[in-house]
Amino acid sequence: MVKNLFISVSSQEEKEENKGSVEFQVFSFTNKIRRLTSHLELHRKDYLSQRGLRKILGKRQRLLAYLSKKNRVRYKELISQLDIREPKTR
Known about the structure:
Elements: H1 12-17, H2 22-42, H3 47-70, H4 72-82
Family: Belongs to the universal ribosomal protein uS15 family.
InterPro entries: Ribosomal_uS15, Ribosomal_uS15_bac-type, uS15_NS1_RNA-bd_sf
GO molecular function: structural constituent of ribosome
């Protein structure tokens, strides 16, 4: 498993303070998603992990939708920092 793909959020003190924030939750879900994705590359028939991955993806999607409605600037910063979605070009 590749460890350098996972994101270090911040120092331990900041982690304890901000566990409820939307950004922290999206960070932790992104780390879980990347870890499960690398696991599923090795174990293709692990259907329970696939189900867990789909559930986490849905949770992260709902949190990002909430953040985009409430604060567009924080949403765009988070997306660019995590490199999750590609910007739309028209």
